[in-house]
Each structure stands twice: as C-alpha cells, then as structure tokens.
Amino acid sequence: MKNWRKFVLATLLLFPALASAQNFPAKPIRLVVPFPAGGPNDIIARVIGQRMSELAGQPVLIDNRGGQGGVLGTDAVAKAPSDGYTIAISSAGALAISPSMERVAYDTLSDLTPVTLVATVPEMLVVATNVPAKDIGELIALAKAQPGKLNFASSGPGSLPHLAGELFKLTAKIDIVHVHYRGAAPAVNDLLGQQVQMTFLDLPVLLPQIKAGSLRAVAVGSAERAPTAPDVPTTAEAGFPDLRIENWYGMVAPKGTPTEIVTALHRLATQAMADPAVKEKLAAQGATLIGDTPEHFRQFIADETAKWAKVIKDAGVETAK
C-alpha cells in the first residue's frame, strides 16, 4: 500500500511538469548574452533568437549581461528558475576556460543544463605586415631565431586568444611573449600599428583587415578551411594537428530544468539553426552551426574543459585559485 501511494503521488507531481512542457513556451523566453551588444556572441544569439521566436510564437528577449569575460551573465542563468524561461547562449571562455582560471560561482556541468552546441568560430593566426613570415613554418623559424623577442596579443588574460597563444608556444616549442588587452579591438589596433607581432582571434574580427591587406593571415585553427578565407591553410595542413583552436557558443539552461523542457528548447534551437536564412547570416560571420544533442554537448564541454585546463597547467598560466 505504501509503495502504491508513492506511485500515485509521483504521478500526480509529474502531471504539472508534463502539462507545462506541452504548452512550452507559454510566455516570453529571456535569452541571456553574457557579453555587450555587437560582438560575435550577441550576433549569433540575436539571429537564432529571432527565428526561435517566430517558431515558438513567443518573444525571445535578448538580455545582454556583460562582465568578467562572460562569467557574470552565465552565473545569472545558473541562479535563475529551472523553468526554461531563462537560458543563455554562452561561450567557450565562460563555460570551459574561466572555471579553470579563476573563482567562479558556478560549476558548469553541475549548475547548468546543456541544451545544444550552437556554433563554432575558427581562431585565425595573423601577423603584422612588417613580420617577414608568410606561413606558420616561417613564423616559427623566426620566433626560434629570436627567442623572447616576438609578442602575441590577446583580448585579455585567460581569454581563448591568450590560451591559443600559449598552446602555440607549447606545440611549436617557441618563446613568444603575451601582451594582453581589454578586448579584441585594442589588440587589433596595436597589431595594425605594429606594436605587437601576432595574435589569434575570432575570424570575423580579423576578416576586414585580412581582406584589406592590413594583416597577413598565417593559419586557421578549424578542421577545414574557412569558407570566408579559403586561401588560408589550416593548422593541421601546416603540420600542427594538435593546434586546433575554435571558439564556440552553446545554449544552456539552469540545473534542474525538466527534460521535457530541455527537449522543447533543443527542438526550437535546432529548427532555427536549420533555417537557410539563419545559416546564411551566420556563415557571413564565419560561424559554423552545429546543433548537437544535450548529451553530446555535455561531453563536449567536459572535453574542452580538460583540454584548456591542461594548457593552463602546462604553460604555467597564473590563475586566481
């Protein structure tokens, strides 16, 4: 009798969740972007969010919450109600790198529910035009001939461009010096001014200068050549398959979000990503849309976290822990 009562109670408790999932979404969804408006994360979220809104028949409201390299906005979602109405499209930095670099108030895989890997954006290695290197082999030879003399810029300590440079140092066994900036724009400005010699940054950030001939592209960190820069070889083609570096953006919800609602969010997001107009808009930003399962995305986050934690340790990068 006791077990029967437990079964009845569990069934009654399940009914509201099932009804909620069937009606989801019944009100506007708040889509947190943990960066200011105008950047790659914001552009990707707005394009996908707009199409999700059309498919769902409910507004998807963009909430820009920048700060601490994406950590503050991501933490806000970790602390939000687990009803599917507050979600985020966050970045590799906030989900996989910052937890190994500094004290953050959330554990990615314990306090957030992965929904889907949304997009990857390749990191491009470029040099200033006064650097006498036309490919990655010549750049490595130049760095080895002048240990400690060449600088690489990043958008901030602990950022993906910073760790990309550290991985480059480890992989190529070279000594180059990190110079960090507060964002990509000042890093690019000093690269254009030839005050630093090289950088890894998201391809869309660098593409205008590459096309104008103001910066020289050396290699791209994706598995295949970028459609927007087809003449630039991949790092694997250049003989460095372990120098695979892509930024990525994924959709997450608070922990405890019911499976049925995660499924509904996943369906909305992947249907939005399958739209040809969405693909076209984001391809122009250098983004490759993914749309994997929640289970695959969870494993992807775990793998990326382990990868960058090893780079941080092996390169001796100082952390706040």
Report the β-strand fraction as a percent range: 15-25%
Radius of gyration: 21 Å
Report the biggest beta sheet as strand number plus sense, adding barrel if it closes: 10 strands, mixed
Q: Pairing-aware structural class of the strands and helices?
A: alpha/beta
**Helical run tally:** 12
Per DSSP E runs of 2 or more residues, the count of β-strands stands at 10
pLDDT averaged residue by residue: 91
Please give the alpha-carbon distance between the first and last residues: 53 Å
Share of residues in helices: 40-55%
Strand and helix order: HEHEHEHHEHEHEHEHEEHHEH
Form type: globular
Pick out the low-confidence regions.
none
Description:
By secondary structure, the protein is α/β, with parallel strands linked by helices. Helix content is 46%, strand content 20%. The chain has helices spanning 2-23, 40-56, 71-78, 92-101, 108-111, 136-145, 160-172, 184-192, 203-212, 259-274, 276-283, 294-315; strands at residues 29-33, 60-64, 86-91, 112-128, 151-154, 177-180, 198-202, 215-220, 246-254, 288-289. Strand 1, helix 2 and strand 2 (60-64) form a beta-alpha-beta unit. It starts with a helix and ends in a 6-residue tail after the last helix.
Question: Briefly, what is this?
Answer:
With 321 residues, this protein is of the alpha/beta class. The chain is built from 12 helices and 10 strands.
